[in-house]
Amino acid sequence: MTFGTSRIFSLSVIPAVAACGILLAACSPEVRTHGAMPQKSVMAQIEPGKSTRADIAQALGTPSTTSMFDNGEVWYYIGARRQQVSFHASEELERQVLIFTFDKGGVMDEMKTLDKNSGQEVTLVSRKTPSAGHELTIMEQLLGNIGRFNSTSDPKSALPR
To answer: How far apart are CA 103 and CA 125, in angstroms?
Structure first.
């Protein structure tokens, strides 16, 4: 009799242990990489004064963006690694901006690396630009077009009979 009771008890524990395992797995952090986060071995291949645009494009792919004011002589590779635990807001673990400056011949002059601590906080302004004119109420919008139909007095523009 004791053997049967312990077997029933052990069978009822299995779903509870499985449920706990699923809940713990749901709470594990999810790490995502966005953009360009090249490995150090790839970055070791790139040398200022020797590497060309083609070399960098082959090693890192196309840039995230290029400079608008320097005729495309500056390439930016932007990447970030973020972590999110279950339903909480995501947290930025790492940010990297690689900046490559090229001379007129297409050879890289300079390489800079910016990280998460190099950034500056920007305060957004929540003002609205006022527009000229009158803002209509809901009733004015609903009733405003009553009686406004295109009445044409020109018989040539009437529909054919």
So the answer is: 38
